Amino acid sequence: MFDRAGNLTPDVLPMLDQPLPVIVRPSTEQDVPFMVDIYAYHIQNGLGDYNAEPLHPDDIKRRRKAMLKRRLPHIVAELGGVVIGYAYAVPFLKRPAYRYAVKHSIYVHKDHLNSGVGRKLLPALIEACAGAGYRQMICYVDSANAPSLRLHEAAGFERAGLLKSVGFKFGRWTDTVLLQRPLGPGNNSLPGKLENASDEGGAQTMH
């Protein structure tokens, strides 16, 4: 690896040009500060979330614990030890009849938007929800967010509807696209018992 003068040998130099892998793994409480930073940017600058104020770390901790208590997936994308995105699923609606449907959210750090982080997180989230026994996955995307629409459609989501002028942010009305994807057998068989997604599991290393 090194010559006698202490220089890197040529066969090692190409290895330094290899990009670091993006690791998708279950979130931990230590990831919360990263999530706060990521979420704050989208609240202040994006149309993917309509909360009026950024969340406090304790708010995200409570949300995360509530999801894990229900064994719903809550995952992060990590690059070089830094969380650059996170995603989670929650019940679509609270009434028991909707218990086999989930809705999800994905947030990516502003410096890594449109760099493929969403393509790492979304398949992992789909797999976790399908493995837990859920049958439908739903999301809401701003109609002007073309990258997110392409991401979801590439992952098998279809446009189920358009909600016109349901949001008002940055001084203008916004439309929301409703997207839906079946999980597992979808509605082709009767549902079984929900196994629920574990908050533990092996990390996936992706390049």
From TrEMBL:
Q: Which Pfam families match?
A: Acetyltransf_1 (PF00583)
Q: Which InterPro entries match?
A: Acyl_CoA_acyltransferase (IPR016181), GNAT_dom (IPR000182)
**Which keywords, in A-to-Z order, does the entry hold?**
Acyltransferase, Membrane, Transferase, Transmembrane, Transmembrane helix
* Residue spans crossing the bilayer: 72-93
Q: Per the UniProt record, which EC number(s) apply here? A: 2.3.1.183
Q: Name one GO molecular function term.
A: phosphinothricin N-acetyltransferase activity
Q: Where are the residues of the annotated region Disordered? A: 188-207
What sequence ranges are listed for the domain N-acetyltransferase?
22-184
Name it.
Answer: Phosphinothricin N-acetyltransferase
Record the organism: Methylocella tundrae
Q: Which gene encodes it?
A: pat
